[in-house]
Amino acid sequence: MRRLFALIPLAAAVALVAALAWPILDGRNPQELPSVLLDKPVPAFDLPGLEPGAPGLASADLAGKPVLVNVFASWCAPCRAEIPRLQALAGDGVTVYGLAYKDDPVATRRFLSDLGNPYARIGVDRDGRTGIEFGVYGVPETYVIDGSGVIRHRHVGEVTDRVAEATLVPLLKELEQ
Amino acid sequence: MIRPAIRALLLALLLLAAGPALAVQPDEVLDDAALEARARTLSAEVRCLVCQNQSIDDSNAELARDLRLLVRERLIAGDSDQEVLDFLVARYGPFVLLEPPKTESTLILWYGPAALLGLGAIVVIVTLARRRKAATPTPLTPEERMRLDALLDEEDDTGRPA
User: Fold this and answer.
1) Does B105 lie at the interface with A, CB-CB under 8 angstroms?
2) Which residues in chain A are closer than 8 Å to B66, comparing Cβ atoms?
3) What is the pLDDT of residues A23-67, one digit of tens each?
4) Which residues have CB under 8 Å from B148's CB, separation 6+?
5) Which neighbouring-strand residues pair with A71?
6) Which of residues 23-82 of A touch B (CB under 8 A)?
7) Which of A72, A101, A165, B137 has the fewest CB atoms lying closer than 10 Å?
8) Which candidate from B49, B62, B66 shows the least CB-CB separation from A33?
9) What residues does each domain of chain A span?
């Protein structure tokens, strides 16, 4: 009994280490933040388009059907890598909107003509203020927005095949119903 | 020739004169010194979400600069310090504050260490009390006392002083 009592501190220490290590071993990225805006309507914004006369992107455009909003910039390497995947999604009938975050429109245009343009509409967020409204902290970020303009998911980082197949596509399908 | 003591003093003076390398750029600084001081204090409390272990006041990241400018803009617009922080929390969540707010989910964070320390103190006190109790000699039984007296009397017979 006495000996069992002496084991309590050891057991408590093991439990503490296990509790602290669990989220890491579970494969969660501790640097990834959950979006505060999850299940909330998109912040109000109205951004100009990339070319004079081209349609921009505003919060009003995000109502009607589920869409992806992809925050990208020509200076960001993972953005470059995910363009083909976004194009494949667009080819499958997904509406993908782009938010050109803190980028020179000339550089954005060159980026899109080099790699292809998956975006049905692009809003130019030159000073990054709309990004702040969304709580953007790492580019690329991809938001799933439902038909009533509510943010349902945020993915931080490159949209890989896995992310697209396991998360984005099923969620969009679910929201379409 | 400069003597070593003077040389050391000069070095100390030079080191004192050198300011810390600041992330805040000259073009960000507000003309109003009071507002600027508030902005600096607030910025030191706001986490840079790119580097995550630096405040926006320390960080050279683009986003940190944008947030520093935003903080100053809100202050000029007349926001209170709390309103500025609330504005940031509404967009980035409580993680944006370097000092986490005291809510249910942060109770362990705030009071866990103190609770563990208290628990440890209780264990130490109980252990020490037990040990002291174990060390207190039990008084002699009447038989033991008689035997002891007899033994001491015997020694007296050998002629040693009582």
Assistant:
1) no
2) 127-128, 132
3) 778 777 777 777 888 999 999 999 999 988 889 999 999 988 999
4) B140
5) A99, A141
6) 31, 33-37, 43
7) B137
8) B49
9) 29-176
Whole-number Å distance between alpha carbons of B60 and A129: 18
B51 touches chain A (CB under 8 A): no
Burial class (CB in 10 A: 0-12, 13-18, 19+), B60: middle
Which of helix, strand or coil describes residue B74? helix
Q: What is the mean pLDDT of each run of 10 residues along chain B (162 residues)?
A: 80 76 81 92 93 90 94 95 95 91 85 92 92 81 90 71 52
Is residue B49 within 8 angstroms of chain A, CB to CB? yes
Residue with structure tokens 């929390």?
B89
CA distance B3 to chain A (A): 53
Cα(A86)–Cα(A98) distance, integer angstroms: 10
Task: Identify all chain B residues contacting A33, using CB atoms and an 8 Å cutoff.
Answer: 49, 92-93, 95
3-state secondary structure of B137: coil
Q: Annotate A50-87 with DSSP letters as a single string.
A: SSTTS--EEGGGGBSS-EEEEEE-TT-HHHHHHHHHHH
Q: With contacts defined as CB-CB under 8 Å, which chain A residues touch B90?
A: 36
Query: B50 — contact with chain A (CB < 8 Å)?
Result: yes
Inter-chain residue contact A102 with B92, CB threshold 8 Å: no
Question: For A137, which of B50, B70, B123 is closest by C-beta distance?
Answer: B50
pTM of the complete model: 0.76
CA distance B72 to B136: 69
User: For chain B, how far is it from start to end, CA to CA, in angstroms?
Assistant: 82
Q: At the topology level of CATH, where does B22-101 sit? A: Helicase, Ruva Protein; domain 3 (1.10.8)
**Which residue in A69, A78, A138 sits closest to B64, CA to CA?**
A138
